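Suppose you are handed a protein chain with no further information: no name, no annotation, nothing but its sequence. What can you learn? This example shows the usual starting point.
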Amino acid sequence: KPPTLDRILQRLEANLNHYDTSVPSLFCDEHVVSSQVEPGSRDRNTYTDSVFRLKRIAKPGHTTTLEESRAIKSVNGKPATSQNISGPTMLSGAFEGALDVVSLNQTSCMKYSLQRIDRNRPAQPYIVRFATVRTPPNPADCLLQEKSNGRVFIDPASMQITHLELTTPHHVIIHGSSYRSPIIGKRVIAVDYAPVQLGGETFWMPSTIAMRNTGDPGTFHMIVWSFRATYRNYHKLEVTSHIVPGSQSPAP
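A reasonable first move is to predict its three-dimensional structure. Written in structure tokens, the prediction is:
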């Protein structure tokens, strides 16, 4: 019997709780291809290779948070001279909170619907569509603060999210200032997840993340910023040590 939407949300919530409480600090290889397209000019692509880190940080009250960071190694094949990636094309939070988009704790902020399940295709992924609620009761508790919609694909065997799509029609791409108006446009994000072994456990981590920002031509001449990041070679971030016998101790 195909599961109901409530049952799917319960399983996703259990997976999310396991991820939040058990995923260890980790690092992996990150390769980012970012581009900027403007009318009448050539495409400008930048290739960045980094070591991406997700670190579990202990907080007061026996709580922890997950913090993302990266150490940029090279840009366009040359050693990096800065740890900043220019342009409004980077995305943070995909490892920390992307899976929260479809969860029980967001039911007051989101409207969920389950796409019809074909009983004759048991291996077909379950698809849950979502859209932000116009006037949520507690806006501060909502993960998405802008009007957005999208869908997730769920593997029926593991009940893990394998793909997420998120569209924000009117996203603030670049905030305004005293001398420049903000650039508003459409943002589309897609995340693919794959199983990764870390510390003897399996966690579903991002394998690719893609984002495309399209500036609204009504407020600014058309510019498209985009990036595609791939992640591989996941490793648990840990330190090992061993005691060296006195006879093998290095000379002072």
